[in-house]
Design brief:
Helix content is 39%, strand content 24%. The protein is of the alpha/beta class. It has 2 domains: 2-74, Nucleotidyltransferase, domain 5 (2-Layer Sandwich), CATH 3.30.420; 95-234, Nucleotidyltransferase, domain 5, CATH 3.30.420. It is globular and about 55 Å long.
Length: 242
Amino acid sequence: MILAVDIGNTAIKLAVVDDVTVYDLMRTTPDAFISNIQSICSNYPDLRNACVCQVGNIDIKLLDGLERLLKVTYINENSKLPFTNKYQSSTTLGHDRMALVAGAIADGSNGKNTLIIDAGTCVTYDFIDDSNNYLGGAISPGLRLRFESLHNFTKNLPLLKPENKVKFLGNNTKASIQSGVVKGLTFEIKGMIKKYEKNYKDLNVIITGGDADLLIKQLKNRFFATPFLMLHGIHNIYKINS
């Protein structure tokens, strides 16, 4: 059992994780980071270790505070991984992408051609083949970045948030933006899946991330959201390196 710490671009997540279960998942802020960890330690007196996956910024003093409470392992380019990393620039592979692939393996994708789609601030596509070789994938802007780009780089377009019910044919500016962003990303994902399915037989597709539920509704297919994939991956990498 460990404390998994996921420091993303837009949120910090904490959860106690073991081989099977994720307990007490919470989102926290830098201001509440240490107090929330202290509360978790109080609720789990046998907790001794933490593993950190960091892609976003955080004050080093907060990590120092974490290290005073628990023994901390950090996922980095030197971490042992449960797959063979074929990424040409392996030192630049995001720690979050490492954890996602490790999570897919922990959740039953070992020995399968698997495409992992993480729909968060960015949308990442990560592919591992049936011999557990990580071959890379793609990165594109997520829903929030697409809405913000339309607003920030034009004079008159409003800043919107994604909606569950989106018309294909937008009959006003807001509906047109929703269609372009949400339907546009949906078509991108469908196209990516179709291309991988053409190249790799018996493709296993996993969709995770903050916007996974919304996009799965748009995809209208057999896919299911996998909300704890990153946390399972952090735990898997911790086990290999402990």
